[in-house]
Amino acid sequence: MSVSRVGLIGAGAIGRAHLVGAAQAEGVEIVGIADPNVASRALAEEFSIPWFADHRALVDEMKLDGAIVATPNALHLPISLELIGAGVGVLVEKPIADTVKEALRLARTAADANVPLLVGHHRRHNSIIRTARSLVRDGKLGRLVCVSVLATFLKPDAYFNEAWRRTAAAGPVLINLIHEIDLLRFVCGEIASLHAMTSNAVRGFDVEDTVATVLQLENGAVATITLSDTAASPWSWDTASGENPSFARHPVESHFISGTEGSVALPSLRMWHYAGERGWFHPLADEQVRHAAANPYVEQMRHFGAVIRKEELPLCDGFDGARTLEITASVRRSAESGEVVRFK
Ligand SMILES: NC(=O)c1ccc[n+]([C@@H]2O[C@H](COP(=O)([O-])OP(=O)(O)OC[C@H]3O[C@@H](n4cnc5c(N)ncnc54)[C@H](O)[C@@H]3O)[C@@H](O)[C@H]2O)c1
């Protein structure tokens, strides 16, 4: 198998996860880091690869096939456009861009140039989520009826010492809810409309600390997502799935998906159905659905290598990433206006 040469642009928290993922992934090698923060030089030394203060030097000197853009959000668009201009395949972190307009510009530029563009919605590469998607798509739950998502957790007070995290540029809608919206689209189907309410009553910042969203899917199912970064609670994908080892893990469920023939809870993949007579007077049987556990960051890097070599199509391309951003951005719009937002 040929190995794609990849550069890492932005070596912060998620940049490190990509370095660790790439070290275990087949067909891809991170050959250099670009980050103006000199502290990232130590990370380059740890992985025995060259460090550059500027991404242009990394691109010019390292003969890249692809690059990961893991910088602050505002740089996603300009850096990705430069990479596409140089014919370098891009894995851009979520959100794909700051605005839907920018996201669509990036998606169109990549498509017109025929340069691969993958958006870093890493949960799509998680085998639990992929198994749940197959259960839904293969009709194992019957017709999809409803979905309940809990994403309630407590960010420590120190997290908010950085001023931008208390403003509308951050907040749990843009930082956390975007993962739930993308998961819902990926597993259960396209979203037709939504209504949302937000609250900042606990932390009192300009930006929300809690949000409740009601969504209608195109297939007729309805969903709710309740999310808070100020709740002392174990019920969230991040603290229940073990996907990110930095979080304490609790063996609880966060996602409940129900159809006419059965239901499944995540992350356990415990499925419920009527073995005999149907209806609430009769017991449901439960079954543990098996899946081949794999690290989604490793799988995302393997996939990126294959996308660069045009062996696979991006699991989340620019237009898909733009759609998730559009729906996520509309949550605040609905909360402010009190109106239902409908999508074309
Ligand atoms: N997929 C996920 O689960 C996930 C998780 C966390 C963050 N993210 C996304 O990843 C991105 C980075 O988030 P983070 O938490 O790692 O942030 P971070 O602040 O820890 O890291 C960002 C890094 O980018 C560097 N940087 C700034 N300007 C740069 C430039 N011009 N060129 C190169 N590097 C530059 C900074 O010095 C810093 O090291 C954000 O878009 C965020 O939304 C995704």
Describe this structure in words.
With 344 residues, the protein is an alpha/beta fold. The protein has helices at residues 13-24, 40-46, 55-62, 76-85, 100-113, 127-137, 171-188, 237-240, 296-308, 318-337, and strands at 4-9, 28-34, 51-52, 66-69, 89-92, 117-119, 144-152, 191-199, 210-217, 222-228, 255-259, 263-266, 270-273, 285-288, 341-342. The relative contact order is 0.17. 34% of the residues lie in helices and 23% in strands. The mean pLDDT is 97. α2 links the parallel β2 (28-34) and β3. The longest helix has 20 residues, at 318-337. A nine-stranded mixed sheet has the order 14-13-12-11-7-10-9-8-15. Strands 3-2-1-4-5-6 form a six-stranded parallel sheet, sandwiched between helices. The chain has two domains: 4-122 and 296-313, Rossmann fold (3-Layer(aba) Sandwich), CATH 3.40.50.720; 127-293 and 326-342, 2-Layer Sandwich (Dihydrodipicolinate Reductase, domain 2), CATH 3.30.360. The protein binds nicotinamide-adenine-dinucleotide. The site of nicotinamide-adenine-dinucleotide has 22 residues, from α1. This is 1,5-anhydro-D-fructose reductase. InterPro entries: Gfo/Idh/MocA-like_OxRdtase_N, Gfo/Idh/MocA_Oxidoreductases, GFO_IDH_MocA-like_dom, NAD(P)-bd_dom_sf. GO terms for molecular function: 1,5-anhydro-D-fructose reductase (1,5-anhydro-D-mannitol-forming) activity; nucleotide binding. Residues 5-121 form the Gfo/Idh/MocA-like oxidoreductase N-terminal domain.
